[in-house]
Amino acid sequence: MGFLSRLFARPAAGPHQREVLCADAQGLHRMRYTEWGDPANPRVLVCVHGLTRNGRDFDTLAAALSSHYRVVCPDVVGRGRSDWLKDPAGYGFPQYVADMMVLLARLDVSEVHWLGTSMGGLIGMVLASQEHSLISRLLLNDVGPVITPESLQRIGEYVGKAPHFDSYAQAEQYIRFVSAPFGPLSDAQWRALTESSIRESVDGKWVMVYDPGIGEPFRQAYLVHTGFDLWPIYEGIRCPTMVVRGAQSDLLTAETHAQMGQRGPRAQLVEIPGVGHAPMFLDESQIAIAREFLLMG
């Protein structure tokens, strides 16, 4: 961390649980988010999670950066503590982007930095490519304008199909299995991810904290209708961009990663060995990558 970053660091605070009301085709829903740091800090970092994850994935990163940023980690609708849509057909990027615009308006700032993992990165790409975008620095975590059919098939096999678990230990075993591409995590890190990923249901079993209804729109969009090419969106991005890739990722290929350094915003490229889809920014070496890029701006 540089001298100026240390000099102007603010006392860390949080986390605090907040919510914002968003509109959908059937009415209104609450999108909840976790906020870290000084709420008066004009420097804001928005961290958005992947398809079946939630904002608590960023607890470790947010705590590490909360002396510099007001860090905002939303649970995308249908995930975490946010409401579920009455009509699952609404689970898609038009709704997610609209909800994020409501959140950005609530934050009442002139610009934000954005860190998005997988789905959260795609939302960030769409927003950053727009004229008058508030995103002034973008970190894409293991996602790009081309997504492999193999990874879509892998995700489609489990999304929305998680069983009910008879015990906490059984739930953790499942999460370790489907999230094995996260890389070698400690027992404590797996426990933390499990705790934020499940809840106890009324029948005493444990269930995932996302709406199973997100699965079918995903399969319809990306498995039935093949083809996924967002190069025109990526090439519309004008802000400084970094793309982090897990070296064993089956979602963001090495070829696409390399092209992202040559096209559009000509992103700064980083590859993390021993990790697939996706790096989780739970250890200091990964956090340092995000910190150094984000605090450059």
Order of helical and strand elements: HEEEHEHEHEHHHEEHHEHEH
Task: Supply the helix-strand structural class.
Answer: alpha/beta
User: What is the overall shape?
Assistant: globular
The mean pLDDT is 93
Description:
With 297 residues, the protein is an alpha/beta fold. The chain has a single domain, classed as Alpha/Beta hydrolase fold, catalytic domain (Rossmann fold), CATH 3.40.50.1820. It contains eleven helices and ten strands. An eight-stranded mixed sheet has the order 1-2-4-3-5-6-9-10, with helices on both faces. Strand 3, helix 2 and strand 4 form a beta-alpha-beta unit. Helix 3 crosses helix 4 (119-128). The radius of gyration is 18 Å and the shape is globular.
List keywords for this structure.
single chain, 297 residues, alpha/beta, Rossmann fold, two-stranded antiparallel sheet, 11 helices, 10 strands, globular, disordered N terminus
Summarize the structure.
The protein is an alpha/beta fold. It has one domain: Alpha/Beta hydrolase fold, catalytic domain (Rossmann fold), CATH 3.40.50.
Q: What is the secondary structure topology, with strand pairs?
A:
Blueprint: H1 3-7, E1 16-24, E2 27-36, E3 44-48, H2 59-65, E4 70-74, H3 93-107, E5 112-117, H4 119-128, E6 135-141, H5 149-158, H6 168-178, H7 187-195, E7 198-200, E8 206-208, H8 215-224, H9 231-234, E9 241-246, H10 254-260, E10 268-272, H11 284-294
Parallel strand pairs: 3-4, 3-5, 5-6, 6-9, 9-10
Antiparallel strand pairs: 1-2, 2-4, 7-8
Helix pairs in contact: 3-4, 5-8, 6-7
